[in-house]
Amino acid sequence: MDPNLYVATEAILIALVGATPPYQWDLQGLSANESHGNHSVSEQGAFGEWLLTANSSEVRKHVHFGSSFTSIVSEWFLIGNASYKVSAASSFYFSGVFVGAISFGQLSDRFGRKKVYLTGFALDILFAIANGFSPSYEFFAVSRFLVGMMNGGMSLVAFVLLNECVGTAYWALAGSIGGLFFAVGIAQYALLGYFIRSWRTLAVVVNLEGAVVFLFSLFIPESPRWLYSQGRLNEAEDALYLIAKRNRKQKCTFSLKLPAERSSREAGSFLDLFRYRILLGRTLIMMFTWFVCSLVYYGLTLNVGDLGGNIYANLALSGLIEIPAYPICIYLINQKWFGRKRTLSAFLFLGGLACLIVMFLPKKRDTGVFAVVNSRSLSLLGKLTISAAFNIVYIYTSELYPTVIRNVGMGACSMFSRVGGIIAPFVPSLKSVQWSLPYIVFGATGLLSGLLSLLLPETLNSPLLETISDLQVCSYWRLGDEAMSLQALDGSQSGDKDSSTGSGSEDEEFYDADEETHMIK
Prior knowledge:
Layout: H1 4-11, H2 14-17, E1 23-25, E2 34-35, H3 41-53, H4 56-62, E3 63-65, H5 72-76, H6 84-111, H7 113-132, H8 137-165, H9 171-195, H10 199-217, H11 224-229, H12 233-246, H13 272-275, H14 277-302, H15 311-320, H16 325-333, H17 339-357, H18 375-400, H19 406-423, H20 437-453, H21 479-490, H22 495-504, H23 506-520
Antiparallel strand pairs: 1-2, 1-3
């Protein structure tokens, strides 16, 4: 079982646990038992003014929530000037993901993939169960941060462990399947929420699946690649024999040996991303693109409660709409007439345009063409396109950086992605200023990132840059030609032979680069 099923439920837990049930109030001077969402503008304004000055005991006395479902909003009366706490709880989660993604990578390099993965997974489930028994909002917020730290960290280590246990030919498939399971996890969470209307019960029950995945994870081997890198050859051989046995290859025999000499490479640092002009431009554009992808993706997902209609159906569709995005983007990025750059730009531009169209729609009209073209359908279209764009940036970013600085570049861009996730929960609340303002933010940032991505070079079928010195070549397309020209100037008779050999290995080199990007993801 893929842990992404469980990871998805915790990532969007607040979409249902933090939803606002319908409520009524019985204040003197206002119409008695007016329902939230069905009262006039003047009544809503008067009630809003009262909420700003009322203390918690008065709110609990005069506001009555419906019984259709419960949430942290109805539990702790997070309405009025306390409504921001719902978004804050989600931001605490993504702040934890930010910390976990940084710390768990270093821990797994030192102590091993499996140990760190299982420890993080166990603590993830423990803290997530604590969510359901939170005695106060403050406890809930802290536990959400801890869940985010464990969830983000262990999912990252799980992906690396998976890729290091399978052959390179399956890395791309493993990455795509992980994305599909995340989308199915969103739909699955919506189904659970439909049948379990108590937020505390829901917060606990979703961990049953996590516990099942954890039990299966106990039987996976340690990463043979990590064991080999640590010089633990016997353990690496045992892990490989176990994998061969489970693949029904009983007669497989081999012996591992450490290389006599380890080649040294040019080392890259974080400052190198900003020291060179070419890298600076690419880094700034990709940082913004990653930020936008995360902002729009989680913003649209967490905004399902404001789309109208059934919140559970909206959330399920929000997950299922992602499924076709993966095969579509994989097909397009490998076509010469589209490539990485144009595909990424097109999806970002289309997603931004879909969100901006919302601001021109009539607010209360569901007849005729507006029965199909409405905020819900356009939001789902935006979700599909931004999911495809998110998948592409992993591949594209790694191909833009030389090998010696690729991990640093991916890490820096990923950090900005987490910042987008931290801000995303607050964007839907902008509807209190103007109902379409969240979509304007999503649309404007999507269009801007789509235009900026056109300034990047195309990397499809291009040689992979190895060192920072390769950046002196201005065009990917001219890299091979200029290398051969330099060889001709040197007058080397073996130049042609070397050049043809390099060309012959170009497909293999590109293949390895593509597989490596999925490992990093």
